[in-house]
Specification:
Elements lengths: L1 E3 L1 H9 L3 E4 L2 H6 L4 H15 L3 E8 L2 E4 L3 H9 L2 E3 L4 H6 L4 E3 L1 H10 L4 E3 L6 E2 L2 E5 L1 H8 L3 E4 L8 H10 L4 E4 L18 E3 L1 H14 L5 E4 L9 H11 L7 H12 L3 H28 L6
Parallel strand pairs: 1-4, 2-3, 2-7, 5-6, 7-10, 10-13, 11-12, 11-13
Antiparallel strand pairs: 3-4, 3-6, 8-9
């Protein structure tokens, strides 16, 4: 049920760097035209660094690793959000599924891809410590490095960091000692270790996997910050309730309204930035190891 695109399979066999990309940002996370723009720009950034993008989705009863533009347009127009727990039912029903970070990590691990890029990971929800994203558990299970701008700022960041620590998931600060919080470079929370540049990051990942680590977070400060991000988040949280549908997409939509669309532009910029750095590290990892980046 897993279908690895010929380009991706050839890159893995030849030892080229491959970076997985999620599609929930295309199907549910961003409005048009930002959703397709971010998907295509991430793929272009990975190619610019000599890598091959492996965008993941559920289509036609297959877990697809590597998509065409037509595939992306299908996900953008009509798809359901698919987390790791939903993969089996979505495949059996031949649904069109946009994969979350957790589901994309699972697919990447199945395809033996070590690197993935996204915007921000899920975590522990504010006021509801029992409500925890599947991203956290998948990080403890799948040996994939997730390059992101930290957890989404709308989450309970201290609880999220504690949960990652409990799961023994390393959080590497890329050029920073402090955990970024998606729209801002500073959260006031320390990372478990700092790494500077692609070479040191690649060495650290290799050492972590050699000593039994599974998933790792590589937390990259956003290239631009949203002014008054904390205040915007607090206002959005006050105005958006859990009365209708999933809260997170509506919170992000309200933040976009409050910021006059600036949060959307920053979101796109940071996701593409993360994809570019993931490809740089994947390339360095492959060169250091002298073996395929997926091995």
């Amino acid at each position: 049920m897993i279908d690895i695109a010929p380009e991706v399979a050839a890159a893995l066999a030849a030892g080229k760097p491959v970076v997985a990309l999620e599609t929930s940002i295309v199907g549910q996370g961003l409005p048009a035209p930002h959703n397709l723009r971010v998907a295509l720009d991430c793929e272009a950034a990975i190619r610019d660094e000599g890598g091959v993008p492996a965008t993941v989705a559920v289509l036609d009863g297959k877990l697809r690793v590597g998509l065409t533009r037509t595939d992306l347009e299908r996900i953008a127009s009509h798809s359901r959000k698919v987390s790791s727990r939903d993969l089996g039912p979505a495949l059996a029903r031949a649904e069109a599924g946009a994969t979350t970070v957790a589901a994309t990590m699972r697919a990447a691990a199945m395809a033996k891809i070590r690197f993935m890029a996204t915007g921000g990971i899920g975590g522990v929800h504010r006021g509801h410590p029992e409500d925890q994203s599947a991203d956290l558990l998948e990080l403890a299970l799948s040996a994939v490095a997730v390059f992101c701008a930290g957890p989404k700022i709308i989450l309970d960041l201290p609880f999220t960091v504690e949960r990652l620590e409990s799961l023994s998931v390393p959080v590497l600060g890329y050029g920073t000692d402090e955990l970024p919080a998606f729209y801002t470079k500073r959260s006031g929370l320390p990372v478990s270790a700092r790494v500077d540049g692609p070479a040191e990051t690649a060495r650290t990942l290799a050492s972590a996997w050699l000593t039994g680590s599974q998933g790792l977070v590589v937390a990259i400060p956003p290239p631009a910050e949203l002014p008054d991000a904390a205040a915007i988040v607090e206002r959005a949280l006050r105005e958006v309730t859990a009365s209708a549908g999933e809260v997170t997409p509506r919170l992000l939509a309200r933040m976009a309204e409050i910021s006059g669309g600036r949060s959307l532009d920053i979101n796109v910029e940071l996701v593409v930035h993360n994809a570019r750095i993931a490809a740089q590290v994947a390339r360095e990892y492959s060169e250091q190891a002298g073996q395929p980046a997926a091995q």
